[in-house]
Design goal:
heterodimer; A: 365 residues; pyruvate-formate lyase- activating enzyme; five-stranded mixed β-sheet; 37% helix; B: 337 residues; mainly alpha; Conserved hypothetical protein from pyrococcus furiosus pfu- 392566-001, ParB domain; three-stranded mixed β-sheet; two-stranded antiparallel ribbon; 7 strands; 11% strand
Chain lengths: 365, 337
């Protein structure tokens, strides 16, 4: 994380974590009366989307820490629950939806961890299988250098038997997590891609080999793993590269350690296209064969998605026939054509994933 | 404002044409031809003397380039000039030249662009302050000024397309962001098509995205034999040419979708679809639900359609129409991914 300016909400300035983060970053926090001052600083930059990655705003989450995944109608959602511990990302992926999701986007870290723990306890007390993750609005592990939040969450989840935490990343920042007593209640998940796509479109992230090496180390410490081939970028000759990554994955990772693998083709709201063109000039990323999906997002023409999913699913199943493999935000037609079944026949996608979590992470039923 | 007025007081001098030289930095007008003006000057005289700054017994012309050309064409040995008192700086000369042009007639887009660049060139910040632009007689806010600024740096063919109004401001601004040869090639195409803004937007976007995806320069794409052939085949009809160009670019930009649409239409032709009965696929074949439309006026027509509908539903091609959608109506999986 290369943060150049640190802001702190005046009301949260006394939180002990502020000093720790400030020391870790070597920056003096600038107190602000409201988020507007931070937004103004971001907006004043020639590239606000890039500037927001270099400014960190410490504040309290005044809304809910736990949110439902913003799945859209017409496509099947995994029913994952978002732990909204932070927002935005210091890495710079060309396709990242967060570039146009927040207005303006700015790295934000929430300090009121007591509220977070209290909300989680309410969910734990329900004694129901639930899957939580922090990787929806940020990369889960970019905060490793500045905050012990992940360790705290791992301990909280380790103390119960019904829920799992998924930490999703494109980094290799697992060093501090390795020795923790996680009790397999935390899944370390990596976003994977074909190597050429990652180096072309995932600026500032760890390479695919490095991610897999980190995953292997995590597996050696007993962590359950997950992998997300998302977004799959459909370009001329790309499929071979994805199949290569799948081969590399299974040459390094024991399939028994994997809780689930997801596949999701690139999709984005139309507003992101202009951001991509402006911030990554000359990239052909937005020049794929996109149509407007039923949710208003741009998606690859359906037969192209099906073809890519089917080939990748076959490759994954050859190496890991028992692994829970799912599609992110696709309809039954695509499921049937690509995977040979629809989630409804197996109790629904959420139930499939819950079952996988119970089986691989040893959750209580 | 009073002090500004005092600064720009002028004296009238009569100068030898040989003592007048053009300072092209301040040229705003895109009009080169002074024949019409020469004819007018010959009849009624030079109503407004050109603007020049004096120095060392010579004069540098900063506004009135066509008027000077007209006097030269008429063989005048001398001409009257308005000369500002004192020693105006280049920034002041720019303001004078722009104001004289902008307040005397409506500037075209290239002239506006030249004026904006002239102001920016002498602005300490290197960009135009909208208030100063307004004071100089230039229209529009900051966004307009930013958009218009690069137009005068377009290749000549593209500038001509702007002047002919063969390309819209949006298109011109987009052309200005492209390499010169790409802008030139597209401007040439738009001059030929005489299409409206939306069609220009579609053609430009498709062309740029195809070029980017395939790694082919725009100029090369538009000079390819298959593209030039379709222009030739359309003859001189701009509407037919536009239709063919749009079809070609869409097929190239969306090859799989276009092929699926074509195969769908082929299947549709196999079906016994009489008038009054229409099958509509989901948009872009993304959704799963087809639509059947029955159009009738009388109960008798409706009964007739019922019989036709039964025949349609039993036709083997109807099943293929529904089932083939997920494969894009390809018989074997193929193509790139």
């Amino acid at each position: 994380m290369k943060i150049e300016a640190l802001f702190v909400d005046s009301e949260s300035a006394a939180e002990p974590e502020v000093e720790r983060i400030s020391t870790a970053l070597g920056l003096v926090p600038r107190p602000v009366g409201s988020a507007r001052e931070v937004f103004a600083a971001v907006q004043a930059a020639p590239d606000p989307v890039g500037a927001g990655k270099r400014m960190l705003y410490l504040t309290a989450n005044r809304g809910a820490f736990i949110r439902d995944c913003p799945g859209t109608a017409h496509y099947t959602c995994c029913g994952y629950r978002i732990l909204h511990v932070a927002a935005y990302c210091s890495m710079d992926c060309a396709y990242c939806i967060l570039q146009s999701y927040f207005h303006p986007p700015v790295l934000t870290y929430f300090l009121n961890r007591g509220d977070l723990a209290a909300e989680l306890q309410v969910e734990f007390d329900k004694q129901a299988t639930q899957r939580f993750g922090t990787g929806e609005f940020t990369d889960s592990l970019i905060w490793e250098g500045v905050s012990p939040r992940n360790a705290e969450l791992i301990h909280l989840f380790a103390a119960q038997d019904r829920c799992v935490l998924e930490l999703k990343t494109k980094t290799t920042a697992i060093e501090r997590l390795l020795p923790l007593a996680h009790r397999r209640r935390t899944i370390l998940a990596w976003s994977l891609n074909r190597a050429a796509t990652a180096s072309r479109y995932e600026r500032g992230t760890a390479g695919i080999d490095a991610r897999l090496a980190a995953a292997a180390r995590a597996a050696a410490r007993g962590y359950p793993l997950a992998f997300h081939f998302d977004p799959i970028v459909i370009e001329e000759g790309a499929l071979a590269g994805y199949l290569e990554t799948i081969e590399t994955l299974f040459s390094r990772i024991d399939a028994e350690q994997i809780v689930w693998i997801s596949l999701g083709a690139l999709r984005f709201m139309p507003a992101l296209k202009a951001v991509i063109e402006r911030r990554f000039p000359g990239t052909p990323l937005a020049c794929g064969e996109f149509i407007t999906g039923l949710d208003g997002k741009l998606r690859y023409f359906k037969p192209l998605r099906i073809r890519a999913y089917r080939a990748m699913a076959q490759a994954i199943r050859r190496r890991a026939p028992g692994v829970c493999l799912y599609l992110c935000m696709e309809d039954d037609e695509v499921w049937q054509e690509a995977l040979g079944f629809v989630p409804g026949r197996r109790g629904g996608l959420a139930a499939m994933l819950d079952e996988a979590a119970v089986r691989v992470c040893g959750l209580a039923r | 404002m009073a002090s500004e007025k005092a600064r720009y007081s002028f004296r009238l001098v009569v100068a030898s044409l040989e003592a007048v030289e053009e300072d092209a930095r301040f040229r705003i007008s895109t009009w080169d031809n002074a024949d019409g003006l020469a004819s007018s000057v010959a009849r009624v005289g030079l109503l407004v003397p050109p603007l020049a700054v004096a120095g060392g017994g010579r004069f540098r012309l900063i506004s009135g380039f066509r008027r000077l050309a007209a006097c030269r064409a008429l063989g005048w040995p001398k001409l009257p000039l308005r000369v500002p008192e004192g020693h105006p700086t280049p920034a002041e000369c720019a303001r004078l030249a722009i104001a004289e042009n902008a307040w005397s007639r409506a500037l075209n887009l290239i002239e506006l662009s030249r004026a904006v660049n002239l102001l920016a060139q002498f602005s300490p910040a290197g960009r135009v302050d909208p208030e100063e632009a307004a004071a100089a007689g230039l229209p529009g806010g900051e966004a307009f000024l930013v958009r218009i600024a690069p137009l005068c740096r377009l290749p000549q063919a593209a500038q001509e397309a702007v002047l002919e109004e063969a390309v819209s401001l949006w298109t011109a601004a987009e052309l200005a962001r492209m390499p010169a040869e790409a802008a030139e090639a597209l401007a040439g195409l738009f001059r030929r098509l005489k299409a409206g803004l939306n069609v220009q937007r579609e053609i430009l976007t498709h062309t740029r995205e195809i070029a980017l995806r395939e790694g082919v320069p725009v100029r090369e794409l538009l000079a390819a034999p298959e593209f030039t052939a379709l222009l030739d085949e359309a003859g001189g009809d701009p509407n037919e040419t536009t239709r063919r160009v749009r079809g070609f670019l869409r097929r190239r930009r969306y090859p799989h979708l276009s092929a699926a649409e074509e195969r769908f239409r082929t299947l549709l032709r196999e079906l016994p679809l009489a008038s009054g009965l229409r099958v509509q696929p989901p948009r872009d074949f993304e959704g799963t639900r087809f639509a059947l439309q029955l159009e009738f006026e009388t109960a008798e027509e409706a009964r007739l359609l019922r019989g036709r509908l039964d025949r349609l539903l039993e036709h083997p091609a109807f099943g293929a129409l529904l089932e083939g959608k997920r494969r894009g109506y390809e018989t074997e999986p193929q193509g790139r991914s």
